Amino acid sequence: MKNNFSSNLKHLRLQNGMTQEELAKKLDKDYSTIGKWELGQRSPIMTDVIKISELFNISLEKLIGSSIIYDNAEIVDINSNIVKIPVYGTIKAGIPIESQNDIIDYVEIPKDWTVGGKKFYGLRISGDSMFPKYSENDIVIFEQNDDVELYNGKDVAVMINGTESTFKKILVNEQGIVLQPYNTGYDIMMFSKEQVEKLPIKVVGIAREKRTKL
Description:
Structural class: alpha+beta
CATH architecture of the largest domain: Ribbon
CATH class of the largest domain: Mainly Beta
Order of helices and strands: HHHHHEEEEEHEEEEHE
Distance between the termini: 43 Å
CATH superfamily of the largest domain: Umud Fragment, subunit A
Low-confidence stretches: none
Number of helices: 7
Oligomer: single chain
CATH topology of the largest domain: Umud Fragment, subunit A
Helix content: 25-40%
């Protein structure tokens, strides 16, 4: 129970805009207890688990039995055609999307996008290397996909060398790949096939939609 419960609890709390202190008050607990639950350092008694399931309107089976964070997308309403996905402030290199924890928001996408097990996440754009197509603070919805036939010529999120993540247009050719910014003030990045395999360079998402706040 510990691994699923601790991560699920933190996810539910953040999704509902609660601090640990606010959740602790609702459960009549000390806030440090919430922190220990979320870190997996302590497990709650079943009475507390039931209170949490009722508070967040989630079944005990789902709260304890499986991870609810990245099971593709989270249903907003059982009768709705909308699901919610996490938005990240950054993508930390070397860490799988499923393990990222820099969640800053959630956005809604059509549920039919997820047909066939497709997975999505959002990323808030920082910097201007992709301007004018994308502006700073735009939220871009990415489909998790590393199929070269699908991502060639598309705007993608890329992990490089386990230390760097970037957002660029990717072009694949016989020599290797090109990562191209839209802003001509930035340099094009070129990598041979050997570098792609050795570094490595891995596409972790294909841009599906841009959302700009006015």
